Structures are given as structure tokens and as C-alpha cells.
Amino acid sequence: MKRFCPLLCLLLLPLSGCAAQKEQKLLDDFSAALNQRQDVALVASLRAVYDDGSFDFRLQYREGPEGPVVTVMEPEELEGLSVTLREDGSLLHYGELHLETGDLDEEGLSPLTALPLLLESLRHPCAQSFRQEGGLLVVSLVPDDERQLDVYFEQETMTPRRAEIVSEGKLRIACEVESWN
Fold first, then answer.
1. What does the longest C-alpha to C-alpha distance in the chain come to?
2. Do residues 27 and 126 touch, judged by C-beta distance below 8 A?
3. Structural contact between residues 44 and 115, judged by C-beta atoms closer than 8 angstroms
4. What's this model's pTM, rounded to 2 decimal places?
């Protein structure tokens, strides 16, 4: 799929009113600070929603010298398994154990790629809209033409607290950020 985000952002820019300018500046400042860091780490609980059911994971994300490293904290059967994510897929392995988490969409979204997608979208945001919900600033990001990410921030600190990834019109990932460093 071709990326249309820059064009979409340019088209939506005139539609963003004065109220959104403050939120856009907060997002731009957050993104600039994030782009200066190479030590981002977070822990998140997420629910992956497949067509035939859902599965819960607790994952740790950290940036390593060779790329993002995602470590499974739960489910218990997979605790401690980790993978350095690269372009060639989301196969999790440890010794003799191999687990294919399965893709949630045609673009390769999986529980293991959800947090790297979130970070990449925050580093290069294409904001579609801003709103307030439950005392949090909700930013709708459009990383490509098939997905939308709603990221819930504490507005004062711009700390991400939740994220939802919608792909092909369906909620695929619901994520609660437990810690953000």
C-alpha cells in the first residue's frame, strides 16, 4: 500500500482550527523530544483481536542497538522470550520453542509489531484529529492508508497511557501503557 499520510496531513491542515493548534504543538514537541532519544522503554498490556478470538499479552519494549526488542512478560508460558524485530517478520523463538503470533492484518500487524508501530507513529505523527476523553488528550494518527491509531496522552506531561490500533475498519490492538521511560 502506498503511504498517503503526508498528502492527507497537507489536506487536513486548513481544516484544523485554532483549538487544534495547541494540541498539534504539544504533539510536535513530544515527537521532537522522542526523536532525540534512543533509549525508549515501556511496558504495556495489550489485547490482540483476531477474527476468531482475542489474546492478552504483557510486553516490554526497549530500543536496542540492532533495533526494537520486544520481550514477553505474559502469558506465563512465554515469559522471558524476546525478539529483535526486523523487516523479515514476527517469529518469536527461544531454544526449541517457536511461536508464530499470526498477523492481524494484511500489512503484518501482530502483537509483536504493535509497540514498534506505535513508537514509529509517534516519532513521525500524521495527526488526523484531537479530542478530550476522560481527562486525556486523544490523538488520532494515520500511519498509512489502512490503519488508524488513537493514542491517549496525559496532556500535562504528554505521557502515552493507552493506544488503540484499528486496521481495515476493525479494532485489532487495545493497549494499556503501564510504564513509559
1. 57
2. no
3. yes
4. 0.81
Nearest to 86 by CA among 106, 58, 103, 64: 64
CA distance 62 to 139: 23
Please give the angle made by the CA atoms of 53, 56 and 58, to the nearest 5 degrees.
160
Which residues does 151 contact at the CB level (< 8 Å), separation at least 6?
A: 118, 121, 122, 138, 139, 141, 160, 162, 163
Measured distance CA(81)–CA(131) in Å, rounded: 37
CB 119, CB 105: distance < 8 Å: no
How much is the mean pLDDT over the chain?
83
| Residue 109 in grid coordinates | 500487524
| Per-residue model confidence as pLDDT tens digits over 55-111 | 999 999 998 667 788 888 999 988 888 887 766 554 455 655 555 566 677 766 888
